[in-house]
Amino acid sequence: MRAAVVGVGALGLVGCVPTSSVIPNDFTDFSDAQQAAICAASPRVGPMGILEYGTGAATGSVPPDYALNCPDLRVTAERWTVTVWAPTVTAALAAFLPEAEFLTYYADLRVRVTDTQVSADPIDSVPEALLDEVRRVTVTVTPLGGPAQPVLRGGVVTPVTLEPGATYRIDIRTDRMPNPWPSVTLDPASGTVQAQLAR
Questions:
Q1: DSSP string covering 111-170
Q2: Residue 108 preceded by cis peptide, ω within 30
Q3: Contact criterion met (CB below 8 Å) for 11 and 19
Q4: CA 43, CA 162: separation in Å to the nearest integer?
Q5: Could you give the CA distance from residue 143 to residue 44 in angstroms, rounded to a whole number?
Q6: Is 2 in contact with 26 (CB distance < 8 Å)?
Q7: pLDDT, tens digit (0-9, with 9 covering 90-100), for 71-117
């Protein structure tokens, strides 16, 4: 059984809930006061799907599983799946902190997503000694109902153009260490990003 610690007292809710609430459930069920406080504190998705919020001394975090429902952001984490909804898919992607290594395929090299294209950072900056390892990373894009298309294979980047509003999945396959987010599905029409955590 996992204990989720929600530091809501630092968010000005002393008197409504304890300064540090320990919720001994596998699923964190926020009270209305907790949810309102977290929504007001810029919630973001961090490493391993941990929900992080607040700044400075008023920071807090909640491990999966949880469901947060804010007016312009919804985040759920159930087992190995994190789903983020926002008014746009760009806003949903922005909900992931840089520290989460979301859509990173090697070190600081990333998969890049725009409204109509998926690409990846070139491997030019990779030291010679690591090139073989990077060349074994494969990134593919699979449109809903369509075939997988390579974005990165053998160290070569090939941008993939998509129909506006099309749903598609990005898969990142590595040779040794698993990618922290090996499969990500984007639905621009609904502003939804669904990401699978590495197991």
A1: EEE-SSEEEE--STTS-GGGHHHHHT-EEEEEETTS--EEEEETTEE--EE--TT--EEE
A2: no
A3: no
A4: 30
A5: 27
A6: yes
A7: 999 999 998 999 999 999 999 999 999 999 999 999 999 999 998 99
Q: Is 4 exposed, middle or buried (0-12, 13-18, 19+ CB in 10 A)?
A: buried
pTM, to two decimals = 0.85
Q: Go through the domains of the chain in sequence order and give each one's CATH number.
A: 4-79 (no CATH), 103-179 (2.60.40)
Q: Which residues contact 14 (CB under 8 A, 6 or more apart)?
A: none
Q: Residues 37-47: pLDDT tens digits?
A: 999 999 999 99
Find where tokens 């806003």 sit. Answer: 91
Measured at the CA of 69, the angle between CA 67 and CA 71, to 5 degrees, comes to 165
| Token pair in block for residue 35 | 């949810």
By C-alpha distance, which of 113, 90, 82 is closest to 182? Answer: 82
Cβ atoms of 149 and 138 closer than 8 Å: no
